[in-house]
Amino acid sequence: MSSSSARPELARWRLAITAAFGLGGITVSAWGPRLPAIKAGLGVGTATLGLLLAGATVGAILGLLASTPLLHRLGSRRAVSGAILLIAAAMTVMGLALIVGSVPLLAVAFVVTGTGVGTCDVLINVEGAAVERAAGRTLMPSMHAAWSIGAAVGSGIGAACAALDITPAAQFIGEAVLIAAAALGVAAGIPRGERAPAEQAPRDRGARLRQWLRGWLNLQLLLIGLVMLGVELGEGSANSWLTLAVRTNHGQTAAVAALFFTVFAACEGLTRIFAGPVVDRLGRVATIRLTTALGVIGIVVFILAGNRWIVLLGVVLWAVGVSMGFPLGMSAAAESGPDPAARISVVASIGYFANLAGPPAIGALAQSAGLLNSLWLIAALFVAAFAAAGSLRPRRPAQEPAYAAQPDSVG
After folding, report:
1. How far apart are CA 384 and CA 328, in angstroms?
2. I need a surface site. Which of 108, 134, 220, 344 has the fewest CB within 10 A?
3. Alpha-carbon distance 280 to 138, whole Å?
4. What is the C-alpha to C-alpha distance for residues 28 and 116, in angstroms, rounded to an integer?
């Protein structure tokens, strides 16, 4: 492929994967604003609602496990578009379950939706890392920014539908149609074939499984996972506890507390959007050390400050601290050895665990130590992420031959 023809294809590839990240963000935020209406419509309690949401978490873990064999079997194009179509189908079932008032069917739909999201997450990170290699520059943070923007859009859609008295069922089915249509556009932009880094992934299924299991004993992957553990616990805890801490511990109004969280989300997204050139200049290791150091300062300021403007400064630095661990960790894992999907699934599992288990851990500590004091755990894990940042050092030169995609019959 000539360089003149490769450049437009690379641009389409990057756009397609960025769009897929955005779709993922829209999906995971679709039902949050509609939970009160879902609860009232089904006549269920908070505990039942919590179990339904836990189903999405279980599904996401299943998706992480399924992503690698799916990629090897179908190829990148079909695997990514198939995962997005699975999400669309599950959201349609979610809407139908709400129409007929079936809690069991809704539970199944949440599990399947989570499976689609978990699978898609690994696959698009594999593709994003391949786009980075082809472009020869850092692009993953801006792709993850698309996820953040998609989450904001998804929340906005849900809030608007609630304000307009559009039922959750109608919203989910309508979004499913749009997501399914977008899947076709995403598929068209993905080059055919599996990505083939310098070291080929094993073709035998048993060898692939053994390689994936060895990933959990690989020191570099575990250290990358530690970086992601630190920053993702910080992000998940901010999503759950920042507003409450600003409201109850710093004495601000509910409106100001909500605004502080909006600032957090905006700063995280903006850091990701503009971080690429910084990473290219400083490298992943220095970038993670810089951002996690700022995160430690932000958490300390947030805990100790009394003035609301200084507290807001702490929120900004906290957001910068959590912004880069996940995208740069995914890039580092993808290029750390053969079979990027298997390696990404290992570190993604650690990141997912931290994001999901972090808020309950903070809540448990808050019961005895107080909410602000419990946030010292985040500061400690930021320090651990700082110490483990060396694991993100590139294993081989950043620039490699563009694409390295192998034509196959499963494109």
Report:
1. 16
2. 108
3. 6
4. 11
What DSSP string runs through 244-306? HIIIIIS---HHHHHHHHHHHHHHHHHHHHH-HHHHHHH-HHHHHHHHHHHHHHHHHHHHH--
* Lookup: tokens for 286: 């220095």
Tokens 């695997």 found at:
79
Tokens 């409106």, located at residue: 255
* Under 8 Å between Cβ of 297 and 88: no
Using CA atoms, how far apart are residues 302 and 305, in angstroms rounded to an integer?
Answer: 6
Q: Rg (Cα) of the chain, in Å, rounded?
A: 21
- With 0-12 / 13-18 / 19 or more C-beta atoms within 10 angstroms meaning exposed / middle / buried, residue 129 is buried
pTM, rounded to two decimals? 0.76
Q: What pLDDT score was predicted for residue 156?
A: 81
pLDDT tens profile 260-319: 877 888 888 899 889 889 999 999 999 999 999 999 999 999 999 989 899 999 999 999
Torsion on CA atoms 60, 61, 67, 68, rounded to nearest 10: 170
Q: Which residue type does 40 have?
A: A
Which residue has tokens 């949401």?
A: 53
Ranges 33-47, 52-66, 370-384, most confident: 370-384
